[in-house]
């Protein structure tokens, strides 16, 4: 490539990106609303809870309070919990007793879900909590452990600037419709299906 | 519902979940391989970088080392960086100068990408680093700032137990094929399109 060719490419790049900047800047200027968001991270792919925990790190990074309620996962210690609970702004509640096929006791699962939800409602009523993560909450609805009528009013009545993230597969339409942001993670490929064990730092 | 109905439901639940547990346990037992994974988190939806940062928290939670290379994002301070850099096991490099439409200077973007990639290669050669995040690296290839021939050998020759996460839209097929786990995040709904500004703790 000659120097003249390169200059031409660079000039085209500059013109094109300058035009693009106008479009982007206009869109950013149009986004004026500040509000507490409801985010739903669903789908079968890897990254739903991880993504919520990334937002926990962001929140704690500003010295703001975050609360995580894990509705399904059991009592085993995992990396993210070990890491975040060191922060005085973090509240972390393990409300579940494990997956249904681990407990095999529907009444016990329902009691655990209800007890967890009572705790989550405290955070959803507390304006000092900037972010509430309802991890794997979709299953509570899908398994009929809790009704949407029990869940939605607390989410809708939360403080105006509080963000809520709901994670889990197969999010109910009511969650999707109520949400400001919805991401559906598609499982294109997963190491587990190729015989790889859950890995520290990645899966737990 | 009578007590007898409830008992019948609970018994059915126990039988079904016990059967499911056999299937799950068998699958878990079959997953015997321990290896450093290559994960690709792509798609247009919200949650790609957040998900990588969740894995950073998991890694640091075990007292293991993590390294993040941000190839596009500019120099503004964000929550996740502020949070993680407090940890002595964290290396965080902001290699980008912002999006193309911000810099409007292709030569400068390419130099920044190359300098960043040289640093990332150090981490990819260091067996004490448990997790390497190549944040928004897909764009380096898509914009032709770096070739796959420059990138793939360093990823393939990394230490056997090191995990690598590549994030960014429109991941090249070569990344997808080389990866152990691929998640594609679909943008079902995004608050920004409804006029909501980027929110602390959620987007930055």
TrEMBL record, chains A, B:
Q: Which domain of life is it from?
A: Bacteria
- GO annotation (BP), single: porphyrin-containing compound biosynthetic process
Which is a Gene Ontology cellular component entry for this protein? cytoplasm
Q: Where in the cell is it found?
A: Cytoplasm
What Gene3D superfamilies does the annotation carry?
A: P-loop containing nucleotide triphosphate hydrolases (3.40.50.300)
CDD domains in the record, alphabetically? CobA_ACA
Pathway field of the UniProt record reads: Cofactor biosynthesis; adenosylcobalamin biosynthesis; adenosylcobalamin from cob(II)yrinate a,c-diamide: step 2/7
GO-annotated molecular function = ATP binding; corrinoid adenosyltransferase activity
| The family this protein is said to belong to | Belongs to the Cob(I)alamin adenosyltransferase family.
| Record-linked NCBIfam families | cobA (TIGR00708), PRK05986.1 (NF004637)
Question: What is the designated name of this protein?
Answer: Corrinoid adenosyltransferase
Q: Which organism is it from?
A: Croceicoccus naphthovorans
